Amino acid sequence: MDGDAHTPTPHRDGECQVLDAVRAGDIRALQELSLSPAGFASGHARKVAWPYLLQVDPSEPEREAGPSTRTLTPTSASPSSPSSSSSSGAQLPTSLPDDQDLEEPHKDEFQVKLDTDRSFVLYPALHDTPKSRLQQRLNTLITRILRRRRALSYVQGYHDVLAVLQLTLCPSDAPSGAEEWVLRRCAERITLYRFRDAMGHGLEPLLGLLRILRRLLRLADPPFARLIEQTTPLPYYALSNLLTLFAHDVPTLPLIQHIWDFLLCREPVVVVYLAAALILERKAEVLRRVEEEGDEGA
After folding, report:
1. What is the mean pLDDT of residues 233-260?
2. What pTM did the predictor assign?
3. Domain 204-297 - what CATH class?
C-alpha cells in the first residue's frame, strides 16, 4: 500500500519532468515533452515553462512605474481617429518604455474594445472568473501594450492570442501583482517576437509566410499543391492559423495549450511547418474548401 501511495501518476510525472527541464535550462527536453500526449501536463507546469520559453524571469523585480494593478481607461474614439505617426518598420526597443505616455489613447482602441467584448466565447466555463471580468482584464492588457508600443497597429486575432496567455498564466479573478507582472511581460514578448509582423501597416510579412507554406506543400505533395494553386495562388485558408498561432481556430483550451507547448519551445517559423503538416493531414477537407472558394470566386 505504501508503494502505491508513492507511485507517481503520469500527469504528476510529466509535470515534474517539465519543472526539472526548466530548472536545468534543457530546451531539448522541453521539446520532447511537448510531443507527449499531455504536452506540459498541467497548468502549474505551463506557468513555469511558458515564461521561461518567452525569456521572462518571474523573480525579476517589478521595474515599471506605478502600481502593478493600474487600470487604463479605454478610449471611446471612433475607428476614424487619426492614425499614429509611428512607422511599423521602425526598430522597436527591447527595454520597456516609461509609463509617461500611457494616458494617451492608441488609435486602435475602438476596435480593441469591440473584439474584447466578444472574447472568451470558446472557453466560457473553464474558470470561476466571470467572463466580463476576463474581458475587462484582456482589454486592459492589450491597451497597455499598444500604448507602450505605438509603432504597432492592432489586428483582429491579436485578442485571441493574448486570451490564451491570460487563461493559462493568470486566469483567477483576483491575481497577485506578481502574476499580473508575468502576464504583462509574457504578452509583450509574444507580441514582439511572435506576432509583430502582423501588426504593421500591411500584410506583406504574412504573405511571406504563406509563400513559405506554399513552397513546403510543393515539396511535400506536388500534385496536391498544383491543384490548390489552380484556385488560390497562396494558401489563404491557413492565414488565420499563422496569424493567431492557431488560437482563433482551435475549439478547446487544453488543445491550444498543447499546440503552444510545441510552438513556444521552437523557432517562430515552425508554425508554418505545423500548418503544412495539418494541411497535408486534412487533404480531403482542404480540397473541398478550395473547391468551394473557387466556386465563390467564379
Report:
1. 91
2. 0.80
3. mainly alpha
